[in-house]
Design brief:
With 213 residues, this protein is mostly helical. The protein is 82% helix and 0% strand. The relative contact order is 0.13.
Amino acid sequence: MLKGTPIESGYYNFLERRIIPTLIGWKLTPNHITYGGLVTSMLAGLSFVYFPLLGGLLTLLTGLLDTLDGTLARATGQSRKFGAFLDSVLDRYTELIIYLGIWCYFYRHEARTPLFSLLILLILFGSLMVSYTRARAEGLGERCLVGAFQRGERVILLGIAGILNPFINLFGSLAGASWTQDLALVGVLIILAVGTNLTAMWRFLHVLNNLRK
């Protein structure tokens, strides 16, 4: 969704001009940033269980670290297959940990557990297939960047939902509107459950069509 847009270009320009020089001055390597992202995701998942606001903030920080490691690698000429593979695998774990934290949050509200277990499973399936279709296509020499629910977009949506959720709950409680309870998280989970699977299917058909040609 953001790939190739002025927003993406401006974001990476900001990183290169404002943040990367500082990281280089601290003598950090891309792998340090990658491991930091994993630790941050663990904190985000744990925070989502009890404090979705903090979980949302840490999730956005996880997304920032995910873009920093690759940008730092390119800026310092440290791009290696080892680091690329490490980053790709740990990215999957960071996202799974955050979803696990959100599932545990709803597990504490037992009446909603079956519904949200299904939603989380659909999101996990869709997210993994979005990544897999791209990886498999690139293994066959095909570019596959179509779709609006890549990892960056998913992380942003989860982060914003976590931040907004307690405020919406508070306003709903003051207004006596029980239907607003966890509305932000519920809405984003539904969007992701549908959107990730549609993106995976879009990529599947896109690559098939290109290979057929």
